[in-house]
Amino acid sequence: MYRFKQGLSAADTGRLPANIVLLLLLLFSGACRSKKTWPVSFPQEELRKRLTPKQFHVTQERGTESAFTGEFTYHKDEGTYHCVVCGAPLFSSDSKFDSGSGWPSFFDLLKEESVSLADDFSYGLHRVETTCSQCGAHLGHLFDDGPKPTGKRYCINSASLAFQAAGPDEGRASGSSGAVTSGKADL
Ligand SMILES: [Zn+2]
């Protein structure tokens, strides 16, 4: 009556192996989704203090700001757009264009490796999520309907970006919440 088993089956092997299989499945799917380890990480409490609620929601909870509400949608200054969380340079104003979508749109990256791509099946759609390769901050999505020469459209939340103007005062990035300039904390 001995039967050679092909793989694991809950009926043949009892409760424990089935639980292990379930655990492995959970671990595996978790590793493939957003639980990836990034080179740079920040304590969530620090980010809650440093970022605005919208910046936190978009970058840490994969949120989306409402169309036409972001501060960089129509921003045309020359400079570099950085990750608002870790400061990594992501986009140049040279590749920014008006897509009409209501979000800042870029047709290219500063560096290919600065943004990571992943499948996103939320809302019953298949989209390609864009994430900061340094800290894992959610940025927005990538579409294939951009202008030449790349044909790509990086549709990015303003809330994920900090702008650094080109010119003499390079080295100062705007977009981060300002430090206290007057008065000192009593603690
Ligand atoms: Zn980042």
Automatic annotation (TrEMBL):
Domain spans labelled MsrB: 44-166
UniProt remark on cofactor binding: Binds 1 zinc ion per subunit.
Entry cofactors: Zn(2+)
Example GO molecular function: peptide-methionine (R)-S-oxide reductase activity
A GO CC annotation given for this chain: cytoplasm
Signal peptide (UniProt feature, chain positions): 1-34
Annotated catalysed reactions: [thioredoxin]-disulfide + L-methionine + H2O = L-methionine (R)-S-oxide + [thioredoxin]-dithiol; L-methionyl-[protein] + [thioredoxin]-disulfide + H2O = L-methionyl-(R)-S-oxide-[protein] + [thioredoxin]-dithiol
Family, similarity comment: Belongs to the MsrB Met sulfoxide reductase family.
Family annotation (NCBIfam families): peptide-methionine (R)-S-oxide reductase MsrB (TIGR00357)
GO biological process, one term: response to oxidative stress
Record-listed E.C. numbers: 1.8.4.12
Function per UniProt: Methionine-sulfoxide reductase that specifically reduces methionine (R)-sulfoxide back to methionine. While in many cases methionine oxidation is the result of random oxidation following oxidative stress, methionine oxidation is also a post-translational modification that takes place on specific residues.
Entry keyword set: Metal-binding, Oxidoreductase, Signal, Zinc
Region (Disordered) residue spans: 167-187
Top-level taxon in the UniProt lineage: Eukaryota
Uppermost EC category: oxidoreductase
Protein name according to UniProt: Peptide-methionine (R)-S-oxide reductase
A Pfam family hit: SelR
